[in-house]
Every structure is written in C-alpha cells, then in structure tokens.
Amino acid sequence: MHPSTEVSIPAEGALLEGELTIPDGAVGIVAFAHGSGSSRRSPRNQRVAQALNEDRLATLLFDLLEPREEELDRQTAELRFDIGLLGCRLIAALDWLARDRTTQQLRIGCFGASTGAAAALMAAASRPARVAAVVSRGGRPDLAGEALCAVSAPTLMIVGGNDRAVLELNEQAQRQMLGETVLEVVPGAGHLFEERGAIERVVLLARTWFRRWIGSGDDP
C-alpha cells in the first residue's frame, strides 16, 4: 500500500474531499470520477487505483459532491445525473492538479465509472491539452452529449457483456467519437463487475491503457 494524503479541492464555491496517492517515481496521474450514488471510497475504484499505484501512476480519488449534496442526492437522486455539475467539478480537480507542485509535471488520465464516465469525457473535451487518456468502466458516455465529438484523448470503454443496455449505449457513443476509441467487453460481467474475475479484468485493461498513454509505455 502506498501512503495517501487527504486533500481538499476548491470547485466553484464547493470544497471537495479527496485522497491523493503519489508513489515514488510517479510517471503520471489518474483522476477518478465515481459513478452515481457512489463516492471516493468505491471498492472497485480503490482496487483499480491500487493497481495503478503499483505501476508508478499517482491517483486522485475524490468526492464529486459535498456531504450536504450527497445527502440530498441520496434522497432525491437529482445530482448524480447532473453531468454539467459533475464535469465542472472534475475539471476543477484537473486544474488543481495542474497547479499543485507535487503533480503539475505529471501527465493526466481520467477514470470514470457509470455517470462519472460522462463527466470524464466532458472534462477531456474541455481540457484537451491536459487529459492524455480516458478509461470508462460501465460508463454512460451518452450522457456527455455534444462533448463526445470533441474528445481527442484516447478512450477505452470497458463494459460487462451482460450489461446489455449500457453496452448498446457505449457502441452508439463510440460511433460518434472522432478520436481513438476502443470498446472492451468483459464476458459474463454485469454493470458493477461483481462476478468472479471481472474486476481483475478491468484492472488489467485500465492499467495497460494508462501505462501506454500516460505512463512509461512499457509492455505489461
């Protein structure tokens, strides 16, 4: 385990809590955008982050909503699909990484899950010179709207084979994207990749993608 630092990221009047992990000799950093109804403590995102740390990739896991907003969302579910808000929060985090002396020299990737994937794509479209790669896990890229056509960062979409509705949405989104886009289907996996071996496959795909585009470029 690599030591993490608690950070607070200002974002247009909000203060977002997060965990920044920078392994020795870090060659890049990945910012995580969690899915609907989740948080920075998502066990699946934590699992991916740990694997990236082992590859000398720093990680930022942070909450897209403040505690009061999370409580409101638990009751109404009205913020988890506000991609404009979530995307702006992620953009604020990317700008913060670009200013912070410990991370400003690192190439940046974004890892988005579920609705967080739409936020990641929106951020990539907004900061094309800053975001070098995107990975979507069980994502809803369709929710990124017109931003899809403006994403130039190489994008990997990972979808469970049994998550048929989301798979179809990813296939449609891929046809709209102009940059390099790869769709990987994990056979037998559902939306949350809880099946045996499913999250391990996600980990392998994500770390290979980020290693290629923001890391050392070495083969796994």
How would you briefly describe this protein structure?
The protein has 220 residues and is α/β, with parallel strands linked by helices. It is 36% helix and 25% strand.
What's the SSE blueprint?
Elements: E1 4-11, E2 14-21, E3 28-33, H1 43-54, E4 57-62, H2 67-76, H3 83-99, E5 107-113, H4 115-126, E6 131-137, E7 155-160, H5 164-176, E8 181-186, H6 198-213
Parallel strand pairs: 3-4, 3-5, 5-6, 6-7, 7-8
Antiparallel strand pairs: 1-2, 2-4
Helix pairs in contact: 1-6, 3-4
Distance between the termini: 20 Å
The appropriate CATH architecture is 3-Layer(aba) Sandwich
Instruction: Characterize the main sheet.
Output: 8 strands, mixed
Q: What is the strand arrangement across the widest sheet?
A: 1-2-4-3-5-6-7-8
User: What shape does the CA trace take?
Assistant: globular
Return the domain count: 1
Unreliably modeled segments = none
Structural class: alpha/beta
Q: Tell me, what is the CATH class? A: Alpha Beta
Q: What is the overall number of helices?
A: 6
Radius of gyration: 16 Å
Q: What is the name of the CATH topology? A: Rossmann fold
**H/E series:** EEEHEHHEHEEHEH
**Fraction of residues in helices?**
25-40%
Tell me what portion of residues adopts beta-strand conformation.
15-25%
Mean pLDDT figure: 92
Relevant CATH superfamily: Alpha/Beta hydrolase fold, catalytic domain
Strands, count: 8
